[in-house]
């Protein structure tokens, strides 16, 4: 039995520029037919749970639909990519969905200063940073109010700020999943000491630097994910889907020198402990 610890079952369309001619297989489209097939194919490969993350307020209406699906663990939150949008309006939308049903986690939240900042001057960049940090802090509070963990995007540098905010807001009281972590090895132990779990995907098994992070993460704090459907496999060049968590689990098992079954069971235990299901 496998679990995909981070996937976007309901997602915004893949940008056209990301779809090149050499891609094989189906291009993910947010239709009911595609979503059902994606879940079905995962089940066929023994992926019995998927943690479904909805983190664009535009996709919030899908939360209700996701609640109807079986064996999906629900995570909802506002991504740093939406930080420049109307804060109070987004918060009211989020609260409405939480009132519908308290999710298993708040996410994905976090910081990514590179997003949407290429045309900004220094002071505008600074304002955007501040907005991302404010949004991150507020959502840590929401997670604490509801006693659920956070799911943190911590992919692309500036993770010192993430760790500082986590400490200042005492996010370790609820704990969480550091998803898709790709930087600063030095901060890993600090986050592990606070009880956070690290979640690894396809990129971590193909890049040497990222393999080092897997090596230093104890099995008891390890989760495995696909972040479907936004990433491409190198060879064959196809979009990564929840069923591919089997491949990632196999590769991480080799790296950790344990049997796939042992690792899969441990990841399931970890996910159940963190997300309480
Ligand atoms: Zn994601």
What does this structure look like?
It is a single chain. This protein is α/β, with parallel strands linked by helices and 277 residues long. It has a single domain, classed as Alpha-Beta Barrel (TIM Barrel). The chain contains ten helices and eight strands. The protein has helices at 32-44, 62-67, 87-100, 122-146, 159-168, 186-193, 202-206, 208-216, 245-256, 260-275; strands at residues 2-7, 47-54, 72-76, 105-110, 150-153, 176-179, 197-200, 222-224. It is globular. The mean pLDDT is 95. Zinc ion is lined by residues 6, 8, 53, 108, 227. Zinc ion (ZN) binds next to loops.
Number of helices: 10
Radius of gyration: 18 Å
- Classify the beta-strand content into a percent band: 5-15%
Mean pLDDT: 95
In the predicted model, the low-confidence regions spanning at least 5 consecutive residues are none
- Secondary-structure class: alpha/beta
Bound molecules: zinc ion
Instruction: Give the number of DSSP strands.
Output: 8
CATH architecture: Alpha-Beta Barrel
Straight-line N-to-C gap:
15 Å
Give the biggest sheet: 8 strands, parallel
CATH evolutionary superfamily = Metal-dependent hydrolases
Q: What is the third-level CATH name, the topology?
A: TIM Barrel
| Helix amount | 40-55%
Number of domains: 1
CATH class descriptor? Alpha Beta
């Amino acid at each position: 039995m496998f679990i995909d610890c981070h996937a976007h079952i309901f997602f915004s369309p893949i940008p056209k520029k990301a779809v090149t001619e050499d891609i094989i297989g189906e291009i993910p489209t947010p239709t009911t037919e595609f979503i059902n097939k994606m879940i079905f194919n995962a089940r066929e490969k023994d992926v019995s749970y998927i943690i479904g993350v909805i983190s664009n307020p535009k996709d919030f209406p899908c939360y209700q639909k996701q609640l109807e699906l079986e064996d999906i663990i629900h995570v909802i939150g506002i991504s740093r990519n939406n930080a420049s949008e109307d804060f109070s309006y987004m918060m009211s939308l989020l609260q409405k969905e939480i009132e519908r049903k308290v999710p298993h986690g708040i996410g994905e939240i976090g910081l990514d200063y590179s997003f949407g900042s290429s045309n900004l001057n220094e002071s505008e960049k600074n304002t955007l940073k501040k907005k991302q940090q404010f949004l991150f802090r507020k959502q840590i509070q929401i997670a604490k109010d509801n006693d659920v963990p956070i799911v943190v995007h911590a992919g692309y540098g500036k993770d010192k700020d993430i760790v500082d905010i986590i400490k200042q807001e005492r996010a370790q009281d609820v704990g969480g999943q550091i998803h898709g972590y790709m930087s600063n090895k030095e901060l890993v132990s600090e986050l592990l000491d606070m009880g956070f779990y690290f979640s690894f995907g396809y990129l971590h098994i193909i890049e040497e630097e990222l393999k080092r992070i897997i090596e230093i993460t104890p099995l008891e704090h390890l989760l495995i994910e696909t972040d479907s459907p936004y990433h491409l496999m190198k060879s064959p060049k196809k979009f990564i889907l929840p069923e591919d968590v089997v491949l990632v689990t196999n590769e991480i098992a080799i790296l950790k020198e344990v049997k796939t079954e042992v690792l899969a069971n441990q990841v399931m235990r970890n996910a159940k402990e963190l997300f309480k299901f």
